[in-house]
């Protein structure tokens, strides 16, 4: 199977030396990409800036901003049998990017932000017949209800509801625990376990559902 996975955070520039980002380390996305490779799939990994080693046997496409990730993903997605969006993509970016280093002035500074593209929603609209589209929902409240809403709104086949209010799972940790929700109402609790084991379980369920 041709599989595309996204991982890591995005960086949204404020000026030449500052940016907005989040706490994603890429561990969950890289675990998914490596587990897919080891299951015999042909894997492309679109990754935001992370401190992880480049995985062997995987096509790595490094990107920085949400706009770059959108371009890289939308260009490749139509050829993929399975797309998993695990990246923590910024929802907002500064409306104006200052060319040099912004000078410090007296008083407060107000940054005006604008929405980025919802890449997963775009993928849900352009989904070819037979493609499996999987998202993640990073939530601190109403985990399952919010995840179910994203599954529906973004036209996904599966979504991994990830409680990111806990420090032992989610962002940055070596372990994770998710509830995998299917479009057909199926529900699987996965973990707590290593991100690699969680990745293997997600892939097994999702790829079985496509057969
Ligand atoms: O990288 P780690 O440190 O290992 O942490 C893993 C993780 C917590 C980042 C990961 O397990 C996870 O939950 N990833 C999803 C993060 C996220 O952005 O969730 P969200 O609920 O805000 O977004 C919902 C879905 O839409 C996600 O699949 C996201 O990739 C996608 N999205 C979001 C915003 C946007 N502009 N475009 C998108 O495609």
From TrEMBL:
It comes from the Bacteria. It holds the Pfam family DFP. SUPFAM superfamilies: CoaB-like. GO terms for biological process: coenzyme A biosynthetic process. GO terms for molecular function: catalytic activity. Residues 2-207 form the DNA/pantothenate metabolism flavoprotein C-terminal domain. This is Phosphopantothenoylcysteine decarboxylase. It comes from Victivallis lenta.
């Amino acid at each position: 199977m041709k599989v595309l996975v996204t991982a890591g955070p995005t960086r949204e520039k404020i000026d030449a030396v500052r940016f907005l980002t989040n706490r994603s380390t890429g561990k969950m996305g890289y675990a998914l990409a490596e587990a897919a490779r080891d299951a015999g799939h042909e894997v492309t990994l679109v990754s935001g800036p992370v401190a992880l080693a480049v995985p062997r046997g995987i096509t790595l496409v490094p990107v920085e901003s949400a706009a770059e990730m959108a371009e890289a993903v939308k260009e490749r997605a139509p050829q993929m049998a399975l797309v998993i969006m695990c990246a923590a993509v910024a929802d907002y970016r500064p409306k104006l990017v200052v060319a040099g280093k912004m000078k410090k002035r007296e008083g407060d500074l107000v940054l005006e932000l604008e929405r980025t593209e919802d890449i997963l929603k775009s993928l849900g609209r352009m989904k070819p017949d037979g493609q499996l589209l999987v998202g993640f929902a990073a939530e601190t409240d109403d985990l399952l209800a919010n995840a179910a809403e994203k599954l529906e709104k973004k036209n996904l086949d599966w979504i991994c509801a990830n409680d990111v209010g806990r420090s032992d799972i989610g962002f940055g940790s070596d372990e994770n625990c998710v509830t995998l929700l299917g479009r057909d109402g199926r529900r699987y609790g996965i973990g707590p376990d290593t991100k690699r084991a969680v990745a293997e379980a997600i892939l097994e369920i999702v790829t079985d559902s496509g057969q």
